[in-house]
Amino acid sequence: MKYPNPARRRFLKASGIAIALPPMPSLAGASTAQRAAEKPVRMVCVGNEFGMYPGAFWPESAGGDYELTPLLEPLAKHRSDLTLFSHLDHGLKGGHFAVHTFLTGVKAAEARGMPDGGISLDQRAAEHVGALTRFPSLTIGSEGGLHGGCRMSWTRTGTRVPPIDGPNELFRMLFLDDDANAKRKATDRIELQGSILDAVLGDAKSLGRRLNKSDNRKLDEYLSSVRDVEVRLDLQKQWQDVPKPAPPIEEPKDEGLTRDLPKIYDLIALALQTDSTRVATLEVGGSFAARDLGISQGYHSLSHHGQVPEKIDLLVQIERYQVEQFARFLDKLKSIQQDESDLTLLDSTMALFGSGMGNANSHTNHDLPVILAGGGFHHGEHRRYPEESRRRVPLCNLYVSMLHRFGVESDSFATSTGTLRGLEFA
């Protein structure tokens, strides 16, 4: 492997990202070797654009004996594997325009002053993984739908992570190797892009000496985006000649997000099982076609139901289908044994399910629907946190706890005030 030159290494180090190498015990330092030997922890984040209808989602009681509402019934067999959280959010307003803060905790315009910028939870975990897996993270969604499609995953520099659009593309990424000619072209492309970046960094260093303070800040923002490209290029080089796993299923066809949900979940499970990735994100957006469930009205229009009972019934059908597919995903993870232990893939996988929208009908972003399953936590409860504004607990406290479980040694994330009290490792 060709390593970056010293200037590029210093640039990356100053940016706050360490690129981990694949596990090579003969070359690795103690920390890398230790990480490679640890049992991997995984994270899957699932979100939708329109939330869950509160009247069919929230139970009246808290604790371990909470009642199963219509939208929680599909998860009945997993009660002991999950925790339901109420009154957690980011304290934001903005309706649809705040939905995309679900995994970041901050709006893009307010992220510049944050220590980690506007990075999303999944990408913070992906930084920790580095190149230990072929894909530090997988982001699945759609470019279609409301407000520009899938916008749940964001890098440290505020760049949206473009989604993998459908199960066919995801399958080909995970299991199909390029032929020799395609690999040669890919190598040439990586080297060319690396040369261009070297030239950009050299020009920027020279230019920076002649700029005032304000213009230097603009230059720094531009160079931050260059860093994202550098990271991707180095990862591509490291895995260029490593064969992909053999495909365990036939190549799927794309049929639209609604019909594709089961296939996408199955592929995410396979990606985790083969250690192709340890971080995956799935956003169910406006491209979700209600007509594929036999519903003639659109998902978005039904989310603005105006308290009309017939529209609410149809909306709950759509949301229940999404919960059913998430429950099926938990079934899948729980059926996969890890090594020769009694632990399943669900035991090592934190599966977060929720939304940045609390109530789509009123365009509110508080009291977000949040479920966390698996991952080695003590589960089995509906945990109700204070509702009063002065006592509210940030959703980002949950994210700090999840990052700790993932192995990230950080005491803060976005607007957090600490870890989430009461959520303990099993």
How would you characterize the overall build of this protein?
Helix content is 37%, strand content 9%. With 426 residues, the protein is α/β, with parallel strands linked by helices. It has two domains: 43-176 and 252-406, Alkaline Phosphatase, subunit A; 177-243. The strands form two sheets. The chain has a seven-stranded mixed β-sheet with strand order 4-5-1-6-7-2-8, sandwiched between helices. It has a two-stranded parallel ribbon with strand order 3-9. α5 runs parallel beside α8 (257-273), α6 (180-208) runs antiparallel to α7 and α8 packs parallel to α10 (309-335). Mean pLDDT is 84; it is low at 1-37.
Q: Which key phrases capture this entry?
A:
single chain; 426 residues; alpha/beta; Alkaline Phosphatase, subunit A; 37% helix; globular
- Helical fraction equals 25-40%
Q: How many beta strands in the DSSP annotation? A: 9
For this structure, the CATH topology of the largest domain is Alkaline Phosphatase, subunit A
CATH class of the largest domain: Alpha Beta
For the report, how would you describe the main beta sheet?
7 strands, mixed
Question: What string gives the helices and strands in order?
Answer: HHEHEEHEHHHHEHHEEEEH
Outline, from the CA principal axes? Answer: globular
Largest beta sheet: strand ordering: 4-5-1-6-7-2-8
Approximate strand percentage? 5-15%
Total domain modules: 2
Helix and strand content put the structural class at alpha/beta
User: Which CATH architecture of the largest domain is right?
Assistant: 3-Layer(aba) Sandwich
What's the gyration radius in Å? 22 Å
Report the end-to-end length measured between terminal Cα atoms: 41 Å
